[in-house]
Each structure stands twice: as structure tokens, then as C-alpha cells.
Write a structure and sequence with these properties.
The protein contains three helices and nine strands. The chain is an alpha+beta fold and about 180 residues long.
Length: about 180
């Protein structure tokens, strides 16, 4: 009797997290998609790394934040409030108009070659979770990724980054403009 109750309890608490995130790998990119904890079908965080070693961070949502426009996003830890909050510049854009009443918007961390990687590293250091406050939204968004899926994403992203840096070094060493 205790075993079925224990199994049911463990299943009830672990299943939502497994359904909360998805790891997608393609030959040229890998993505970790994470649904917001409270508004699962209304906000999704997408962390992407491509074969060139570049990162992209987008949050898809239904909130018109005066798109197109520029704003601010704050990334905070969910539990350990002694860690530092990090501020990012973001771009708000129309992503897709589904019909006359439903529109999907995207908030993208400005790609300055530092911020997207910093966001991913910080998300990782916060235990694959972050509280996100976007200027213009009333409530913060809470994103928690499944640990296995997050680790698979980090391995893929690290692999792409390593390959990209090796290609850059090879290109630099065979450049006709470099001295022998």
C-alpha cells in the first residue's frame, strides 16, 4: 500500500516539470524551450545555440509591450536571493498574428555577443531556473527547466561553441593576410 502511494506522490510532483521544458536538437542548432510555471500556455522561454557558436534568447508571450520597442529585462534567482540580479536590454517585436484577436510577441535579449551567453550561464548557475522581470509586465515570469533536458542543451551548446572556436582558429591560421 505504501509503495503505490509513494509512486503516485513522486509521479505527481515530477511529471509537470518534465512537461514544462523540451530539448530539441537539429544538425545546425539546439534549443531548450521552457514553459512559464504559472502561465504555461501563455509564455515560453527559448534558449538557442547554433553551429556557429552563437546564442539567442527569446521569450514568446501574448503581451503587447509597444512592439517594436526596446526595454529592460531583469534575471533573478528563484531561491537564493543573495545572488546578483542581472539586467539586459531587450527588443520587443511582433512574432506572429494568429487571427484578429490573437497575436504572439517576442522579447529578445539584445545580441551584443555577451548578453545571450551570460543569460544562459546565469540560468545554469541558478540551477536551471530564473525569475524574469520584463519592464512593462505586471508580474514576473518563473522558468524552471528539467535538469536532464537542460544538461543535454548545455552539452550541445558547449559542443557548438568548441567547434566554432576551432573553425575560427583554423581560418585565422590559413589566412593569406597573416604572416608565416
Amino acid at each position: 500500500m505504501i509503495t503505490p502511494i509513494l509512486f503516485l506522490t513522486v509521479s505527481a510532483f515530477s511529471t509537470p516539470l518534465l512537461e514544462n521544458s523540451a530539448y530539441i536538437k537539429k544538425s545546425s542548432a539546439c534549443t531548450l524551450r521552457i514553459k512559464e510555471e504559472r502561465y504555461q500556455d501563455k509564455s515560453v522561454l527559448a534558449l538557442t545555440s547554433n553551429h556557429q557558436g552563437k546564442y539567442d534568447i527569446k521569450i514568446y508571450h501574448f503581451n503587447d509591450l509597444s512592439a517594436p520597442s526596446r526595454g529592460k529585462l531583469i534575471q533573478e534567482p528563484i531561491f537564493n536571493k543573495t545572488q546578483t540580479d542581472i539586467n539586459y536590454l531587450v527588443d520587443h517585436n511582433l512574432f506572429k498574428q494568429i487571427n484578429n484577436e490573437q497575436v504572439i510577441y517576442s522579447t529578445t535579449i539584445a545580441n551584443d555577443n555577451v548578453s545571450p551567453k551570460l543569460f544562459i550561464d546565469t540560468f545554469r548557475s541558478y540551477g536551471n531556473r530564473s525569475l524574469i522581470q520584463i519592464e512593462g509586465l505586471e508580474h514576473p515570469l518563473s522558468f524552471v527547466a528539467d535538469n536532464k533536458q537542460a544538461q543535454d542543451f548545455y552539452k550541445c551548446a558547449d559542443k557548438f561553441t568548441t567547434k566554432a572556436s576551432i573553425l575560427t582558429k583554423k581560418t585565422e591560421s590559413i589566412s593569406p593576410f597573416s604572416s608565416p
